Amino acid sequence: MHIRPKSDEIYLDCNATTPVLPEIAQAVSHTMERVFGNPSSSHITGLQARYILDNTRRLGREVIGAGRGHLVFTSGATEGIQTAVLSALSHARKQGHATVGKVLLYGATEHKAVPQALAHWNELLGIGAELKAIPVDGNGLLDLDFITEYLPHALMICTMAVNNETGVRQDLATLERVIRQHGSQVPWMVDCVQMLGKGQLNLAATTIDYAPFSGHKLYGPKGIGFLYVREHAPFTPLIIGGGQEQGLRSGTENLPGIAALHTLFELLLDTEQQVFKPVAKLNGYREQLLGALRTAFPTLELNHAFEYSVPTTLNFSVRGVPSRDIMDVFDAANIRVSSGSACSSKVTRSFVLDAMGLADWRSQSAIRLSFGPATEQATIDAACQRIKEAAQALWHSCLLLSDTNEDFDSELDGVVQLRFDAQCCYLIIDRAARELVVIDPVAQLSERIEKLVECQHYRVKAVVTTEPQSANSTAAMLAQLVCASGCDAERDNVGWPRHAQADCTIPEDCNLPPEGCLLVGNRRLYRVGTRQPIYLLSSPISPSAQAHVDFAFVGEQEAPTLLNQAVGEQTLICRKWDENFAIATQLHELNQQDCGCALVDIAPEQQQQWLRRPETLVLDVREQQEHQVTPLELPAQVVNVPLTRLVQFIYDHRAEYKDRPIVCLCRSGNRSAVAAQVLSRFGFCNVSHLAGGMALLAS
Q1: CATH among 3.20.20.70, 3.10.350.10, 3.20.20.120, 3.60.15.10 for 405-590
Q2: Which entry of 14, 192, 343, 384 is annotated as an active-site residue?
Q3: Which stretches make up the Rhodanese domain (predicted)?
Q4: pTM, whole model, 2 decimals?
Q5: Residue range 472-517, pLDDT digits in tens
Q6: Is 483 marked active-site?
Q7: Topology classification of domain 70-251
Q8: Which of 167, 135, 143, 148 has its CA nearest to residue 357?
Q9: Which of 322, 452, 592, 624 is 20 to 30 Å from 309 at the Cα level?
C-alpha cells in the first residue's frame, strides 16, 4: 500500500502537542538507562539523580524568572491547575470567609481545565461561590471593567498568558495593575502553558500566585510539567504522602521527564543555540503560511489580530467550507492541523471564537494551524506547497470555486446524501442531463449546494421538502439558486413545480395515486401526499419494462402503513432524520424483519491478506478530495465511495457484490465502520472494515 511515510508528515498542530526534540529524547533515554536512581536515596546512584532534579529546578527558575517562590514538578499543567485551585479555595475556607455573594473569576476563553477545576473544588469543598466568566472583546482581550466590578467579591481569579486556540496574548502588566488595585489579596493564577519559549517571563517580579506549565507543549515528553507558586501564596498539596518536592507534591519524581526539562531549559538559556528561532523569523513563517492560505482559499478570514497574538498560531475560517472538510483533506495531504474547537461528533463550534463574538460560520469552520519555535524553514516551504495541493483537491470536489472548475468533473451521479448533524438533504443528480433536484434542503448546506450547481452547471429542476412548505424556509431561500442555474425567474421550481402536476405512469410498486411527476434525466420523481409528502424516484424509463420505485424520500412523520402501499421490497428508503447513520432502510426493516448479514470479524493479519488479493474490493469511504490527495495503491480493486454516495453504491451493486470480499477503509476507522455496518444490513455478506483506518497502516 502506498501511504506517505511518517518522514513526509508536516506537523502544524504544536499548540496541542509538539514532537520531542532529538536532544531531549536522548536525555530521557540516558536518564532511564544510566541515571535510574531514586532522588530520595542517599547512595551514589540516588545522589546522581538528585543532582539532575536540583539542577533542573535551578535552570527552570532562571527560565521563568523565579528567584523566589517555589517551582514544583508535576505531571503536567492540568495537575498544576488543580493544585492552584485547591490551594486558593482551601485557603478561603480556612479563613472562614462568608461565601454569600462570592465569585470565582475566569477568562471566558480559558482552557476547559480551568472552569472545570473551579467547579469541581468549589462543590467538593462546599464553598458555594458563583463561577463567572470574564468576557472578552473581539480581539480576545479580557474585559477590565468586568474584572474591576467583580474582583472585590472574588475568592480567586484565573487568566491565561496565551490562548491555545488563537494565540492571543493577554497584557499581563495591565491585568496585574487592575487586579491588585481592586483585589490585592485575591489569589491569581495565570495559565502559562502556551507562553513558554514564546516570550520573556519574570514571575518573581509580579504578583502572580500560581503559574502552571507543561513540557509536551515545547518539545518535551508528555507526563511532565511544573508549577510556579509565589512566595507566601496559599498552598495545599494535591498529592500527599512521601514528602517529595519539599512536601509540596508527594510521589517519586518523574526523573526522565525532569531530565527532559533540564535539556529544554538549557536550550532556552543558551544565547548561542540555533534550535529555537527568533521572533522575527517566526513572524516571517506566519506571513509565508498566511500568503499560501490566502492564495488557496480566497474567502479565508483570520479569527485573530496578529498584533495581539504570538507568531506561532494561525486561526482562520474559510467561508462556505466546513472545518471538517479542510481538516480531512489536509490530513490526506499529510498536513496535521486541528479544528478550532474540541473534537467531537457533537461539538461543531469554537467556544473561544463564540466568546469573542465572531460570526457563527467562523466559529463552526475554524481551523487552527500552529507551529513551534524550533520549526525549520524547509517545513514551512513544504507546507505551503502541500496547502496548494489540498486546495486543488477541494476545487476538484466543488467545495471551492475557481476559474478552472469547469475542467473537473465531480463524478456525482444518482442519489447523494448530504448531512448536517442528524439532518439529511438529498440531491438527485443526472450527470448526463446536468439536472438536479434538492430534497429536504438544510440551511447549513445551502452554500455547498450552490457551489456544486455553479461548479457543474446543473439545471435545478426543483427544491422540495417532506415538511409542510411553511415549515421549511430553506427551500424558498434556494429560489435564487434555481434562477441562477438558468431556470425560469419565477418561483415555480421552488416546492413542487406546477408543471409537474400532469398525469404520469404509476410505478409498479406504488398503489397510491401520485400528485404528478417530474422528469430528472431518464427517471421520474413522484410526489405522494400534499401536506407532508413523500417522494418516489423511479427506475430508468424503458419502453420495454414498467418502472419500479428505486428510492423513497420520507420526512419526520414516517408512516409504515403508507410506505407499504407506496414502495417495493427493494426500494431504498431515505430519511430526512438519521441519528444512527442508517444511511437508508428497506420495508423489511420497518416491518421488523431481519434480512441482513453479520459483519465479518477478522484479525488484522487476515485483513492485510485481503488487501493483497485482486478479488477483494476496497471501498475507500473518504471524501473525493482526500482520495485524490492520497490515492491507495493496492493489489485489490479500490473504489472511492464516500458516505455521501453510499446509498447509490448499494443500489448499483447489491446483487453484483453480495458475496465479494469487501474491506471498507477511511482515515481513522470511524466512517469505514459506518459503511461496513450499513453494507452488512443490506445483504453484503463478506464485509469488514479496517479498524484504526489509514492512521494505523504500516507504510
Answers
A1: 3.60.15.10
A2: 343
A3: 612-699
A4: 0.83
A5: 555 555 555 544 444 443 444 456 777 776 568 888 888 888 888 8
A6: no
A7: Aspartate Aminotransferase; domain 2 (3.40.640)
A8: 135
A9: 322
